[in-house]
Write a structure and sequence with these properties.
This protein has 340 residues and is α/β, with parallel strands linked by helices. The protein contains 14 helices and 9 strands. The structure holds ligand V47.
């Protein structure tokens, strides 16, 4: 499928598109909807990059800079694991004050406290920031991550790959080609990662398709992406003015098209944090097969207006999935099923 064919999918009627995406989804995963028990930790919000869509980093609209202590981070992870979390998802802002080693100490401390936990950490944007700031290669940063206990990489920092738009949205942050290169290097190390796309801001349908095709092409080479996560832009506390948020039809079409175009990526995650739980459930009928997880505490989307700060209880998650007619499946971070 080329860009024109993919773009034409948007012309299909919503439910026809949903049927096509559902067919692929059901072939791959039947009635299953995956979720995990996870905890997000964002150790610092002090950022040297300036992304117009971000409400999380400490700036004029969010003037509360913080850095968590290394022990505090490990303690927070341990408390979450004691409550049943199987994955700790750590993403930081690009903080020049804490030093290179701090990033690795955070990971090795969590792993020392919790040797069996799955540590999903460091976006490609963080990898590029550390490499650039400290004069290191991407390979060096990735190898140090592995040494300090990082198991997989989240998909953040991809935003939208189109270079012109990227310049307007987040000039100075990891370039699209480098985002892809970092994931390729990570996959070459036998590791898995996810891929995101931030949509619903100033991008066009064609920009979204371009983004999907670049991911599809890399996946063809490495096979290292587990899940694609379309992140719906949250509109508050940031520096992007849009006339109105995307309507549900356009969101569902975009998710369905992701399922169709990215037939080589096993999972499509409807990230409930940005979509709301209800739309994330509807998205399961439009190609998605995953809800992300219980999360416990969410800071990035909620800083920009999402009602996700407190996470969601496991029972509510499974009740909602079952109530929508699907089979709730708890998974680990690389999609092994966890027996109930
Ligand atoms: O890269 C920033 C996004 C991302 C806003 O890999 C915003 O499983 C919406 O990548 N509205 C970080 N989104 C979060 C992320 C993620 C989340 C959950 C699961 C996974 C995964 C990855 O948050 C950033 C950026 O694209 N973001 N501002 C906003 N206003």
């Amino acid at each position: 499928m080329d860009a024109n064919d993919a773009l034409k999918l948007y012309d299909l009627e919503l439910f026809e598109l949903g049927e096509r995406a559902s067919e692929i989804r059901r072939k791959l995963h039947g009635d299953k909807v995956f979720y995990n028990r996870n905890r997000q930790i964002n150790p610092t919000n002090i950022c040297s990059d300036y992304c117009k869509f971000c409400g999380f980093s400490a700036h004029r609209k969010n003037p509360n800079p913080y850095v968590m202590g290394v022990e505090e981070i490990a303690r927070t992870a341990k408390e979450a694991a004691d409550r049943g979390a199987k994955e700790i998802h750590i993403v930081s802002a690009h903080n020049k004050d804490v030093g290179l080693e701090w990033y690795f100490e955070v990971f090795s401390n969590v792993k020392a406290a919790l040797p069996d936990i799955h540590l999903k950490a460091m976006t490609a944007a963080e990898v590029e920031f550390l490499a650039r700031t400290y004069g290191k290669s991407f390979e060096y940063i990735l190898d140090r991550m592995i040494e300090s206990g990082v198991d997989s990489m989240p998909g953040g920092g991809a935003e939208i790959f189109d270079e012109t738009l990227r310049k307007r949205l987040c000039d100075g942050k990891v370039k699209s080609a480098d985002w892809l290169k970092i994931h390729k290097l990570w996959h070459e190390r036998g590791r898995k990662s996810n891929a995101t796309m931030l949509f619903g801001h100033i991008e066009s349908r064609a920009h979204r398709i371009d983004h999907l095709l670049r991911l599809r092409d890399l996946q063809e080479i490495t096979g290292g992406f587990n899940a694609f996560v379309p992140l719906l832009f949250q509109t508050k506390n940031n520096y992007i003015e849009i006339d109105r948020p995307l309507d549900a039809e356009e969101v569902l079409k975009t998710i369905a098209i992701s399922r169709i175009v990215l037939a080589n990526i096993p999972h499509i995650k409807a990230y409930w944090v940005g979509l709301t739980l209800k739309l994330a459930l509807v998205a399961q009928e439009f190609g998605a097969d995953d809800m992300d997880g219980t999360i416990e505490k969410e800071s990035i989307n909620s800083a920009a207006g999402a009602a996700s700060a407190g996470g969601v209880a496991q029972k509510l998650m499974t009740d909602l999935i079952a109530g929508a007619g699907f089979l709730p499946i708890e998974r680990d971070s690389v999609y092994n099923e966890i027996a109930a």
